[in-house]
């Protein structure tokens, strides 16, 4: 059994997991599979015990219940830093490691022993507390098209001739949330926000703006009814996202909420989202978005037409205004401040 445990720990290290707490868990599971107590796990014992032990399958990365498309929970082993109670027996997870099984989407949590009480355990995943925002795997339907634009039979050739696309069919009555995060905002505060949203929501609905900007996320949600957008960044990030929404030619412009990061958050203040995120509960922020009323925002497109044709001179800029606009000394100061913040983001955390 030690050889099996060591091999699993090598895989865990390759996946950048912390193997310290995995060893006793794996050893305990394998000992439970050793029915004849001879110190070895035979093929029959492995088939009988291993393939029915969900926590072991999770540790091995073999539990694919989240991708079956039938709405079941997608289980993962989790170490809880705060007091956590089992949703089935309502008893706190005890022990040094406080390990339990947690659905990655609705956060339904149970003891390992409670998991085996399948007659009492609800297997369906409804999205949990954030069901209005979360995009469940059952809502994402793959649509395969060939390069000529025609529908295919869903197979993928060895040459990669087919391109996989997705159609989103959200749960009735919900408003899936597209989260766009600028990881550079707030002295790299956006990087932490990105990781937290990957945990709270479906990672497929959370996009890093460093990877192609807002366009990939908007295209992914293009035909999704009643979706919302959460812009995580400063005023520049919000303006960038609004500009891309204008250019995306969507059938309906989605409502945009703001999670203000960094220092330039005047637009967020106007919309009453505050002057900056200070590490509060993101779950509470998501619930606030769910209950927030819609307001209109004036956006202006400036077009400068010279009176006379001039051969020499600077090119006329293309500008979009969001609520406020300034020229002169304060504009020069704001521009120099922006340049310095781009070079040294770690020095601009205060508000």
UniProtKB/TrEMBL annotation:
Query: Keywords for this entry?
Result: ATP-binding, Calcium, Kinase, Lipid metabolism, Metal-binding, Nucleotide-binding, Repeat, Transferase, Zinc, Zinc-finger
Q: Which residues form the Phorbol-ester/DAG-type domain?
A: 72-125
One molecular function GO term is: ATP-dependent diacylglycerol kinase activity
Indicate the segments forming the DAGKc domain, all copies: 172-306
Give the record's GO CC terms.
plasma membrane
- Reply yes or no: does the keyword Magnesium apply: no
What Enzyme Commission number(s) apply to this enzyme?
2.7.1.107
User: Which biological pathway?
Assistant: Lipid metabolism; glycerolipid metabolism
Q: Which Gene3D superfamilies does the annotation name?
A: 3.30.60.20, Probable inorganic polyphosphate/atp-NAD kinase, domain 1 (3.40.50.10330)
Kindly report, in one word, the top-level EC class recorded for this enzyme. transferase
Q: Which domain of life is it from?
A: Eukaryota
- Which InterPro entries does the record associate with it? ATP-NAD_kinase_N (IPR017438), C1-like_sf (IPR046349), DGK (IPR037607), Diacylglycerol_kin_accessory (IPR000756), Diacylglycerol_kinase_cat_dom (IPR001206), EF-hand-dom_pair (IPR011992), EF_Hand_1_Ca_BS (IPR018247), NAD/diacylglycerol_kinase_sf (IPR016064)
**One Pfam family recorded for the sequence:** DAGK_acc
- GO annotation terms (biological process): glycerolipid metabolic process; phospholipase C-activating G protein-coupled receptor signaling pathway
Q: Which reaction does it catalyse?
A: 1,2-di-(9Z-octadecenoyl)-sn-glycerol + ATP = 1,2-di-(9Z-octadecenoyl)-sn-glycero-3-phosphate + ADP + H(+)
Please name the PANTHER family in this protein's record: DIACYLGLYCEROL KINASE, DIACYLGLYCEROL KINASE GAMMA
Q: What family is it from?
A: Belongs to the eukaryotic diacylglycerol kinase family.
Q: What is this protein called?
A: diacylglycerol kinase (ATP)
From which source organism is this entry? Rousettus aegyptiacus (Egyptian fruit bat)
């Amino acid at each position: 059994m030690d050889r099996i445990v060591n091999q699993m720990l090598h895989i865990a290290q390759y996946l950048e997991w912390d193997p310290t707490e995995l060893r006793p868990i794996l050893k305990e599971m394998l000992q439970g599979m050793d029915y004849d107590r001879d110190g070895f796990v035979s093929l029959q014992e492995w088939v009988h015990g291993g393939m029915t032990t969900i926590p072991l399958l999770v540790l091995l990365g073999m539990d694919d219940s989240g991708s079956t498309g039938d709405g079941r929970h997608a289980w993962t082993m989790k170490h809880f830093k705060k007091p956590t109670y089992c949703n089935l027996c309502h008893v706190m997870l005890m022990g040094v490691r406080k390990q339990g099984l947690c659905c990655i989407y609705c956060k339904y949590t149970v003891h390992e022993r409670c998991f085996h009480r399948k007659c009492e355990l609800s297997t369906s995943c409804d999205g949990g507390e954030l069901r209005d925002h979360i995009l469940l795997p059952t809502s994402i339907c793959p649509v395969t098209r060939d390069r000529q634009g025609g529908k295919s039979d869903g197979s993928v050739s060895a040459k990669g001739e087919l391109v996989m696309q997705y159609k989103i069919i959200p749960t009735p009555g919900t408003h899936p949330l597209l989260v766009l995060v600028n990881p550079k905002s707030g002295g790299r505060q956006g990087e932490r926000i990105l990781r937290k949203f990957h945990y709270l929501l479906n990672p497929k609905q959370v996009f890093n703006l460093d990877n192609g900007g807002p366009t990939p996320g908007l295209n992914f949600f293009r035909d999704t009814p009643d979706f919302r957008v959460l812009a995580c960044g400063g005023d520049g990030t919000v303006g960038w996202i609004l500009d891309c929404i204008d250019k995306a030619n969507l059938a309906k412009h989605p409502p945009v909420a703001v999670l203000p990061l960094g220092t330039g958050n005047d637009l967020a203040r106007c919309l009453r989202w505050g002057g900056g995120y200070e590490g509060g509960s993101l779950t509470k922020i998501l619930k606030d978005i769910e209950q927030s009323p819609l307001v209109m925002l004036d956006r202006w497109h400036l077009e400068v037409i010279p009176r006379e044709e001039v051969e020499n001179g600077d090119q006329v800029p293309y500008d979009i205004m969001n609520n406020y606009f300034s020229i002169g000394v304060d504009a020069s100061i704001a521009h120099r401040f922006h340049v310095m913040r781009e070079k040294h983001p770690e020095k601009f955390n205060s508000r």
